[in-house]
Design a protein that fits this description.
With about 60 residues, this protein is mainly α. It has one domain. α1 packs across α2. The longest helix has 30 residues. About 10% of the residues are buried.
Length: about 60
């Protein structure tokens, strides 16, 4: 029973960290204007890459395809 609680706590923490990662990614992508005029598939892919790879966006990598 103790192991089940520890696993649940670790899983919950992991999920919260993933959520925080994607929220920060969305904020960084929005700040760098990746969500402006997202009306083509190419622009949607650029925005998705910017959200997922936001640490690279912070150091200056351009995700424009």
């Amino acid at each position: 029973m103790y192991a089940r609680r520890a696993t649940f706590g670790f899983g919950l923490l992991t999920n919260l960290l993933w959520i925080a990662y994607f929220v920060v990614g969305a904020l960084v992508a929005s700040d760098h204007k990746y969500f402006d005029h997202v009306d083509k598939l190419e622009q949607v892919l650029e925005a998705a890459l910017a959200v997922i790879l936001w640490p690279l966006v912070l150091v200056g990598v351009d995700m424009r395809i």
